[in-house]
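Reopening: Amino acid permease still failing for me.
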Amino acid sequence: MSSLFRKKSISQLIQQSNQKSLNRTLSALDLTMLGIGAIIGTGIFVLTGVVAAESAGPALVLSFILSGIACALAAFCYAEFASSVPISGSVYTYTYATLGEIFAFLIGWDLMLEYLLATAAVATGWSGYFQALLEGFGITLPAILTSAPGSGEGGMINLPAIIIIFLITALLSKGIKESTRVNNIMVFIKLAVIVAFIVSGIFYVKPENWTPFAPFGFEGIITGAATVFFAYIGFDAVATASEEVKRPQRDVPIGIIASLTVCTGLYIIVALILTGMVPYSQLNVSDPVTFALQFVGQNSLAGIISVGAITGITTVLLVMMYAQVRISFAMSRDGLLPKKLSKVHPTFKTPFQNTWMTGLIAALIAGFVDLTTLAHLVNMGTLAAFTLISIAVIALRRTHPDLERAFKVPFVPFLPAISALLCIYLMTSLPVITWISFVIWICIGLIIYFVYARHHSKLGK
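Support: Ran it again with your exact input. Result attached.
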């Protein structure tokens, strides 16, 4: 039994981070843009409408605030770990050092599902905006090629979603520096588009659209918060980049907190304007921001917003897939997954095979599974990860009180404990089918751990 809870020492992790198998090329600005690139996308351009119409109404703004608070508490925990242990793997690595191997494997397994499904879900949202853009030019793609089976739209495969995933995979396989350059350009474009929506939309806000403010009650606000949590998972991806940052102890906490702060503010403003422009009951569409502008007669600006939304969602795709590859890379390097997943390309200095394998699986999911199912499962995985990182910070403070930390979570253990409890509370509001799917995935992970990972673990050897 003791082997199940064997831990990596902090000195082992730091020594591993100094081996430089991956290029250290990223700055604090790159990380902040990486975080914004991941956070602002499907959450603001897709989920806002669905959640307002089905769960929260105009109180969507409270759902975003509640999720933002939960994420801020978790972000502090991520920042402390990233400033202490600058290595790929995010929560997986931190859990390995504090709670033991079996917990590390299971949260790594959970994160792999989270990022794979997030990539597929975001690609589905990208496909919806891309089709809306084409229709603006009078081009309509056949329904059979533009939606997944079972989505109610008569489709057999979501081909645009598959194509964009393969394009992102090709970019990521070439190198992180090239990927971040493209990401930074696209982030600037989507921020400009969001500001344009805010400036133009504020003149069409009708306060009467905010009444009733919470038509689904407090329960609807909580359900909305658990659903829009999907919109915040980007800062977790920043932590996975620790091993490719020039000054990780300083830059990673800056990237995590700065990106979360900027995005939370934008989410709140956009939610207020969106529900003020259009009655919440009419927002159950796949492109609510564009729809709102068309609703008030701003068709030409709606076309520009569609381009910005496509750009914004593309950056989310890039960061989600990047994070998935870095998680599986770290687990493979520890022997818990097959060796080929941690093999670094001699020229590009990237996990080349891992990247293409991830892209293929994500493309298949995006092509054949509908968006709603994916979003709920991603939220469950995210909340589970945030719960463990909060517990792990408390454990690290007790086991390594003298460890050098460039950033410290205030009020330990109270703040991390509140973070864990809030995440668990949000998890309880997710649908039963989501819990069943999550438990099945964890059971599959346990089987893989006992059949393969436990016997191939480098720490065990």
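Residues 2-456 form a domain with the Amino acid/polyamine transporter I fold (CATH 1.20.1740.10). If you still see a failure, please send the error message rather than a screenshot.
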